[in-house]
Amino acid sequence: MEAIILQILNGLDKGSAYALIALGLTLIFGTLGVVNFAHGALFMIGAFVAVTLNRIFNLSFTVIDETRTDFLGNPMQVEVPYVEQWFGAETGAAIIDWSVPLAIIVAIPIMALIGIAMERGLIKYFYKRPHADQILVTFGLAIVLQEIVKAFYGANPIPTPAPDAFRGSFDVGQLIGFEPFAIVYPYWRLVYFAFAAIVIGAVFAFLQFTTFGMVVRAGMADRETVGILGIDIDKRFTTMFAIAAIVAGLAGVMYTPILSPNYHMGMDFLVLSFVVVVVGGMGSLGGAVAAGFLLGVLQSFASMSQVIDLIPGINQVIIYLVAIIVLLTRPRGLMGRKGVMEE
């Protein structure tokens, strides 16, 4: 039972990332009708926003510390971060320690601007083009963004730690009645799952309970009728592209302590997230989220050593096998809408 619960937690952790990226993909496809293969790059950019902010906070200058000496008895030169000089040693150290959560504040406007620039500068010219053209141009854009990041940050992963308060593991087992230390799980992974749940809930609440969201949902169902009513649906769709970019970026920011950012991480997650979207049903927001968590849990169980010993390599293909089975039995996906990508 302990192993099962642990694998469920692992699956929810992976599923959170899949669900957030797939949610953004579905927002873009559902509102704009664009298959955006550059969406994984937005996840990557969000991660590197956290990396950049951490580096900025760690910028330092050299001072002579008279209280410390080297082996020759000379005063030592030490590096003092600027934030510690500006805000004091204790506050400055806390700012550096909490650089990843603080990156959320910075990432929101940055990702919104990037999303608007992508939509207005490139994507809008492909609204009425075939999906194959959209895939090619957005895939090319993803490669360009990936190579730009590689040029500035290098090819190696860049460790970005979580705050000290969330390092280590939490005794989940004792919380639910098991023996102490029977089920322990990293704090930050639990934080990521909670964060994903909040973001997903906020997006659904925004679409369901605000006037803006209701107009967008109406535009997703019948864009021409909404336009006839005098509503500038294009501006609202641009806003939705920005929101989708923010969701992907925030997913990347909070994932940095779990997976050290590298230039190809966006492409790694993109392929799996597109499978999630297809399994959930093209254009279905609920389907994307449900499929993200479902496939994350299945992939986690398939990664158990007992399963791999029985079926070698199953952890690498389980998501694709599930996709094949779902599409054979439900061609529109689990919650797909009639007519989406069926013309």
Automatic annotation (TrEMBL):
<feature type="transmembrane region" description="Helical">
    <location>
        <begin position="310"/>
        <end position="328"/>
    </location>
</feature>
<keyword id="KW-1003">Cell membrane</keyword>
<keyword id="KW-0812">Transmembrane</keyword>
<dbReference type="InterPro" id="IPR001851">
    <property type="entry name" value="ABC_transp_permease"/>
</dbReference>
<feature type="transmembrane region" description="Helical">
    <location>
        <begin position="102"/>
        <end position="123"/>
    </location>
</feature>
<keyword id="KW-1133">Transmembrane helix</keyword>
<dbReference type="Pfam" id="PF02653">
    <property type="entry name" value="BPD_transp_2"/>
</dbReference>
<dbReference type="GO" id="GO:0022857">
    <property type="term" value="F:transmembrane transporter activity"/>
</dbReference>
<feature type="transmembrane region" description="Helical">
    <location>
        <begin position="270"/>
        <end position="298"/>
    </location>
</feature>
<feature type="transmembrane region" description="Helical">
    <location>
        <begin position="237"/>
        <end position="258"/>
    </location>
</feature>
<protein>
    <submittedName>
        <fullName>Putative ABC transporter subunit</fullName>
    </submittedName>
</protein>
<keyword id="KW-0029">Amino-acid transport</keyword>
<keyword id="KW-0472">Membrane</keyword>
<keyword id="KW-0813">Transport</keyword>
<dbReference type="GO" id="GO:0006865">
    <property type="term" value="P:amino acid transport"/>
</dbReference>
<feature type="transmembrane region" description="Helical">
    <location>
        <begin position="16"/>
        <end position="35"/>
    </location>
</feature>
<dbReference type="GO" id="GO:0005886">
    <property type="term" value="C:plasma membrane"/>
</dbReference>
<comment type="similarity">
    <text>Belongs to the binding-protein-dependent transport system permease family. LivHM subfamily.</text>
</comment>
<feature type="transmembrane region" description="Helical">
    <location>
        <begin position="190"/>
        <end position="216"/>
    </location>
</feature>
<dbReference type="InterPro" id="IPR052157">
    <property type="entry name" value="BCAA_transport_permease"/>
</dbReference>
<feature type="transmembrane region" description="Helical">
    <location>
        <begin position="42"/>
        <end position="64"/>
    </location>
</feature>
